[in-house]
Amino acid sequence: MISMEFIITSFIVILVPGTGVIFTVSTGLVQGRKASVFAALGCTAGILPHLMATVLGLAAIMHTSALAFQTLKYAGVAYLLYVAYSTWRDKSTFSVNGNPSTNAATGLIVKAFLLNILNPKLTIFFLAFLPQFIRPDSSKHLSQLFLLSVTFMVMTLIIFIAYGVLAHAFRKIVMESPRVQAWLRRGFAATFASLGASLALTEK
C-alpha cells in the first residue's frame, strides 16, 4: 500500500527544479508542447536505471565504490557542459514548429534520458529515500520497492508534462521577442553549466 506520506514527499521532491525539470521547461518554451512531452518521457526513463539499481541492491555498490561514483559523475558533468555549450551556440533551437519529426522526437528522448542516467546522485538519493517507506512488518520488501518505484516514475512523468505544458503557455511571448529568446537561451545554457559544476563538486 502506497502511503499518503510517500505521495506528498515524492510530489515535493519532483516539483523541486533540477536538471530534468529545467530541460523539460526549456523544451516546452522553445519547441512546443509536444516536444516537452517527449522530453518528459526521456527524463522519466532516465531515472529507471537508478530505481532498478536501488531495488536490486546495486546502489549499495555505487555508494561504496568511489571509482564507480566518480566515473559516472564526470560523465554526467561532461554531458551537462555539452548541453550548456550546444544551447548557447544553437540559435535555431527556438523553432516555430511545434510538431517535432520522428528523428527530432527520438533525439529529445535520448538527450533527456542521458541527462538523468548520467547523474549518480539519483542512485544515492533513491538508496536513501525509498527504504524510508518500506513497511518493516512486511516480508515483501522487494515488491514494495517495485511499487514505490513505479509510483514515483508515474508521478514524475505527470508532473514533468505539466511543467512542459505550462512552459508552452508562455511560448508565444518567446516567439515574438528575439531579445527574450536570446536571454532564455543564455539563461538555460548558464543553468546547465552551473548544474554541471555543482555535480563536479559533489562528494558521496
What features would you describe in this structure?
It is a single chain. The protein has 204 residues and is an all-alpha fold. It has one domain (19-89, 97-200). It contains 10 helices and no strands. Helix 1 (4-15) crosses helix 8, helix 4 (58-64) crosses helix 7 and helix 5 runs antiparallel to helix 10. The longest helix is centred in the C-terminal third of the chain and has 29 residues, at 141-169. The protein is globular, with a radius of gyration of 18 Å. The two termini are 31 Å apart. 35% of the residues are buried. The mean pLDDT is 77.
Secondary structure layout plus pairing:
Layout: H1 4-15, H2 19-31, H3 33-56, H4 58-64, H5 66-89, H6 102-117, H7 120-129, H8 141-169, H9 171-175, H10 178-200
Helix pairs in contact: 1-8, 2-3, 2-8, 2-10, 3-6, 3-7, 3-8, 4-7, 5-10
Strand content: under 5%
Order of helices and strands: HHHHHHHHHH
Largest sheet: none
Distance between the termini: 31 Å
Oligomer: single chain
Class derived from helix and strand content: mainly alpha
Could you report the average pLDDT, rounded to the nearest whole number?
Answer: 77
Unreliable stretches: none
Secondary structure tally: strands = 0
Secondary structure: helix percent = over 70%
Shape field: globular
Summed up, the domain count is 1
- Tell me the radius of gyration: 18 Å
Helix count, DSSP H or I runs of 4 or more residues: 10
